[in-house]
Specification:
single chain; 199 residues; alpha+beta; three-stranded antiparallel beta sheet; two-stranded antiparallel sheet; 8 helices
Length: 199
């Protein structure tokens, strides 16, 4: 199949990746735009993995105020260079994450940021619930593990399903943007404010 300029442009518009990479993806996938898009996403994930350990000291502090002005979020999103921090893709990612935080009220950025006290309390509750099933101890342990994983999925920001696209997690949308921009991106911290709520 001939790889036309129009096909390359369509993939570029859809993925945000450079023309040469789009053309390469289309060549690799025989001109199938859906397969080429998946190819680019996988390549982006591989790039993101390589960049994960790199220091991210630049970035932005973004705010999101929900319509009605009774709920707001401040988010610090970091990257490696000031140049990337000013790009639309980076700022849009930050806005999407801040809006997501407003909607889902996560406890922490990652599971490491949740206190042992909260985790132990959850384990205790899940263990008590599981014991009522009269199952053997090793099954109860597995049940508790499963419920704890679910707890993290629901309460840890990077593990949550993205409100605008539940087929992706917040980590996935960050990975996609890392693949596009070529820099490590890290959510450093956030604060969610709701009118009348005591912190």
């Amino acid at each position: 199949m001939e790889i036309t300029a129009a096909l390359v442009k369509e993939l570029r518009d859809r993925s945000g990746v450079g023309m040469m990479e789009c053309k390469k993806a289309l060549v690799e996938t025989g001109g199938n735009i859906d397969k080429a898009f998946d190819y680019l996403r996988k390549a982006g994930a591989a790039k993101a993995l390589k960049k994960e350990g790199r220091e991210a000291k630049e970035g932005v502090v973004l705010s999101y105020i929900h319509p009605g002005a009774k709920l707001g979020v401040l988010l610090e999103l970091n990257c490696e260079t000031d140049f990337v921090a000013k790009t639309d893709d980076f700022v849009n990612l930050g806005n999407d994450i801040a809006m997501h935080i407003a909607a889902t009220d996560p406890l922490a950025v990652c599971s490491d940021n949740i206190s042992n006290e909260i985790i132990e309390k959850e384990k205790e509750i899940y263990t008590e619930q599981a014991k009522k099933t009269n199952k053997p101890a090793e099954i109860i342990e597995k049940m508790v593990e499963g419920r704890l994983k679910k707890f993290f999925k629901e309460n840890v920001l990077i593990e949550q399903d993205f409100v605008k696209d539940p087929n992706k997690t917040i980590k996935d949308i960050i990975t996609d943007t890392v693949g596009k921009l070529g820099e490590n991106i890290v959510i450093t911290r956030f604060k969610r404010f709701q009118l009348g709520e005591k912190n």
